[in-house]
TrEMBL record:
SUPFAM superfamilies for this protein: FAD/NAD(P)-binding domain
Organism: Spirosoma validum
Domain FAD-binding residues, every copy: 7-320
The name this protein goes by in its record: FAD-dependent monooxygenase
Molecular function (Gene Ontology), one example: monooxygenase activity
Keyword Protein transport annotated: no
Gene3D superfamilies noted in UniProt: D-Amino Acid Oxidase, subunit A, domain 2, FAD/NAD(P)-binding domain
Keyword annotations from UniProtKB, A to Z: Monooxygenase, Oxidoreductase
Amino acid sequence: MTKQNARILIAGASIAGPTLAYWLHKHGFEVTIIEKAPALRLGGQSIDASGPARQIARWMGLEPAIRAVSSNEAGIQWVDKNNHIEAAFPRDHPLSITDEMEILRGDLVNILYELTRQQVTYRFNAQIERLDQDDQQVSVTFSDGQCEHYDLVIAADGIRSKTRKLIFEDESVFKYLGVCVAYLTIPRAPTDTNWARWYTADESRIILLRSDSKGTTRASVLFLYPQTDFEKLAPQDHKSLVLSKLADAGWEASRLSEAIEKGEEMYFDGIGQIKAPQWFKGRLGMIGDAAYCPSPITGRGVTLAMVGAYLLAGELSRHQRFEDAFSSYEGLMRPYVESVQGLPPGVPELLYPSSATGVAIVNKLAGLLSSRAVKTVINLLKPSADQADQQLNGLALPRYGF
């Protein structure tokens, strides 16, 4: 396989897929992206590209476009049921969830599409139904009945990837972390500011509100939920479950309940990680959330998606044999994935107190962590932002001859 005539198919037009397509095209490959939705899926919450992904975004020339649609979020405030601020983590605080390149998921998807649509073939409203590979190629049967041939096929279609199941069947494991989440977009209210607001309620519930760049507010409802009960949930149960968790939660919970009752679109899922013993099988592979979703708890899903895409394209560009490229990629990427997926002891449970006393303790701890003294100590111990952007597990982020 030589990159001058190699054809690569990518499943998924979210973040990992178009990023991979950009770099593959830059290295001389012919790329097609297939997306099961009839158009780009532009929903989603606030995200950011941190660490080495920030440098990759700069190399792609994305920084001006990202900053142009940034939410300009000032930071995050922890509030009590009376909206009194218990702690504040400005954007420059090392423990803040707000990043300097904060952007809505849908905005980043659109930016990546506009960046690549002239060089990459996009096929919407279709998906892969069957994959057959031999020593020479992969035969792909699509949902519209067409069959085409590619040198490689890469799944980048998210945590619930259907392409992953076609390749690996049930080999990969979704590790549920004991938390359910509901996302919805609601009208902005006078209480909403340019600060994200985090509210912890008793009975292991959290509400997060973040004003966006569209004049609306992105809401998240999170709560602990046993795995045995989660596995029994049916789609028709989601709305009633979320409403039951919002009942008597206090603060602005009634505002969210009213929005759900009025029919505001709500996305619901369990929070978890994808643990995959292998990412490649012959000419087939996967990246991004399909391969190694770290969960929203880490805040590094976009980072892994962009870093993984950049590295895979680079390794394919510098190896004659795709098998060698895949092996080298795993050597670089798997240690990084494992470091990102690692959670501190007690997380996430410690963030979800069951009693009012527990809530008071968590809020008090947040106040201590937000102090100037703690910020100073953490900044002294952590690498600078420039160093973090240039490194992958302490090693220099590879360059691939561009």
